[in-house]
Specification:
Layout: E1 2-3, H1 6-17, H2 21-29, H3 34-37, H4 41-54, E2 57-63, H5 67-70, E3 72-73, H6 76-84, E4 97-103, E5 112-113
Parallel strand pairs: 1-5
Antiparallel strand pairs: 2-3, 2-4
Helix pairs in contact: 4-6
């Protein structure tokens, strides 16, 4: 079992929080400026596509800040297309339609070991 790299660990924490796609980028970049997020889209898009395909995560679409808990699951085939579309990563106000990432059916920690806090 290999340890998660920094991007994997960061994403893992956000998945546990049911984060919206745009908020993953805002958190990772440390900026509210969407232009600063763009460099992270390919990294997290590719990583999430792999994790969706492996069953580690799923996408949920719903309204407002409770979307992760109250939204509907996006089928895996559609999730891959959504993640590849850079417009899916744009900021959405909290009351808008959110695309969130939540844990899937397969526990990622059964395949990858936690590497610890990347900020430490």
């Amino acid at each position: 079992m290999r340890k998660m790299n920094e991007d994997e660990y960061f994403l893992y924490v956000n998945v546990l929080e049911g984060s919206a796609l745009w908020s993953i980028l805002a958190d990772r970049s440390g900026s509210e400026d969407e232009a600063a997020w763009e460099g992270f889209i390919p990294v997290y898009s590719d990583l999430l596509i792999r994790w969706v395909q492996l069953g580690y995560v799923k996408l949920v679409v719903g309204e407002g800040w409770t979307a992760a808990e109250t939204g509907r699951d996006l089928p895996q085939g559609l999730a891959v297309g959504v993640l590849a579309d850079t417009s899916s990563w744009r900021y959405v106000p909290e009351e808008g339609t959110q695309i969130c990432v939540v844990p899937g059916e397969v526990r990622i920690t059964d395949h990858l070991a936690l590497s610890g806090d990347p900020g430490a």
